[in-house]
């Protein structure tokens, strides 16, 4: 389950390095949907996702060969975890705005035909947001680092520095092949990933699939990985309570900056990880 959060962080951070006009899969979105997503990003409701801090760091680092995805993720998540969570009403507002503004796109992508309604999307978003936030805010007490950035650093040690090129389809499969051939237990079988699995498995919507994955997980990480016990040395740092929305958006200063690529990647990634 931590792997899913780490992939989300990678996609969101490297997506923030794209600028308008670059060729991405999200260029197929309609102009109405793009405008909607940009509006959602700078709306006060989005403050609980700490996207202002995320974008300020990512955009400042844009174009730099020294950009560190783990460092950006750490800065972003540290702020997110130190703030209250999004309320159900906030999530409902975001989902409503996106599904309304991107209605034609959802229809073109076959989402509507598949019977996935706004109510279904909202149910999933409200169900999975809390555990995703909890996983994103796990901390390794030994290193004093949040688990997701630490996992990303361990991943870079195997496959090399993460960057925009990792979003290229061919590079993506090459990266997976490299990871499969390596000893990745120090990424997949840590106390952090075990606690992430403990959290995620409780809400995973496909129990049969989870049962099928039990043997390969056990073969890789050992039977104790699936015993449900909280591993020592891992803390839950997400503070409780709801985020208090400020009157002025944290993203107001980005009004003059071209953030089309960053906007689309961040918001779409948020919905991918929630759904």
Quick description:
Helix content is 58%, strand content 3%.
Question: In words, what does this structure look like?
Answer:
Helix content is 58%, strand content 3%. It is mostly helical. The protein has one domain (2-274). A hairpin with a 4-residue loop joins strand 1 (138-140) and strand 2 (145-146). Residues 1-21 form the signal peptide.
Which features characterize this protein?
mainly alpha; three-stranded antiparallel beta sheet; 3 strands; 3% strand; signal; transmembrane; transmembrane helix; membrane
Biggest sheet features: 3 strands, antiparallel
Total number of helices? 13
Radius of gyration: 18 Å
Indicate the overall shape: globular
**Helix coverage percent:** 55-70%
Q: Kindly state the number of beta strands.
A: 3
Q: Into how many domains do the coordinates divide?
A: 1
- Protein structure class: mainly alpha
Helix-strand sequence: HHHHHHHEEHHHHHEH
Q: What is the straight-line distance between the termini?
A: 13 Å
Q: Could you tell me the strand content as a percent range?
A: under 5%
Unreliable sequence segments: 4-25, 249-275
Strand order in space, largest sheet: 2-1-3
**Global mean pLDDT:** 76
Would you spell out the secondary-structure blueprint of this structure?
Elements lengths: L1 H14 L15 H12 L8 H11 L7 H13 L6 H14 L1 H6 L9 H19 L1 E3 L4 E2 H13 L9 H13 L3 H4 L2 H11 L5 H15 L12 E3 L23 H15 L1
Antiparallel strand pairs: 1-2, 1-3
Helix pairs in contact: 1-8, 1-13, 2-5, 2-13, 3-4, 4-8, 5-7, 7-11
């Amino acid at each position: 389950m931590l792997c899913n959060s780490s992939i989300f962080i990678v996609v969101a951070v490297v997506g923030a390095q794209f600028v308008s006009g670059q060729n991405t899969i999200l260029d197929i979105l309609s102009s109405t949907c793009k405008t909607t997503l940009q509006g959602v990003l700078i709306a006060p409701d989005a403050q609980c996702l700490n996207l202002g801090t995320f974008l300020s760091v990512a955009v400042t680092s844009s174009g730099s060969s020294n950009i560190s995805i783990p460092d950006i993720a750490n800065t972003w998540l540290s702020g997110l975890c130190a703030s209250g969570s999004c309320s159900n009403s906030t999530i409902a507002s975001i989902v409503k705005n996106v599904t309304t503004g991107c209605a034609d796109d959802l229809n073109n992508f076959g989402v509507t035909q598949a019977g996935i309604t706004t109510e279904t999307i909202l149910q999933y978003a409200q169900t999975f947001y809390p555990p995703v936030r909890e996983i994103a805010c796990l901390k390794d007490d030994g290193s004093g680092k949040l688990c997701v950035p630490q996992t990303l650093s361990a991943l870079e040690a195997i496959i090399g520095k993460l960057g925009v090129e990792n979003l290229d389809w061919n590079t993506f499969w090459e990266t997976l092949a490299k990871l499969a051939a390596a000893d990745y237990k120090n990424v997949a079988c840590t106390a952090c990933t075990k606690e992430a699995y403990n959290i995620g498995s409780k809400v995973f919507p496909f129990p049969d699939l989870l049962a099928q994955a039990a043997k390969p997980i056990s073969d890789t990480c050992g039977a104790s990985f699936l015993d449900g016990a909280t591993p020592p040395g891992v803390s839950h740092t997400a503070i409780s309570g709801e985020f208090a929305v400020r009157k002025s958006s944290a993203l107001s200063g980005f009004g003059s900056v071209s953030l089309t690529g960053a906007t689309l990647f961040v918001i779409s990634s948020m919905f991918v990880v929630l759904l």
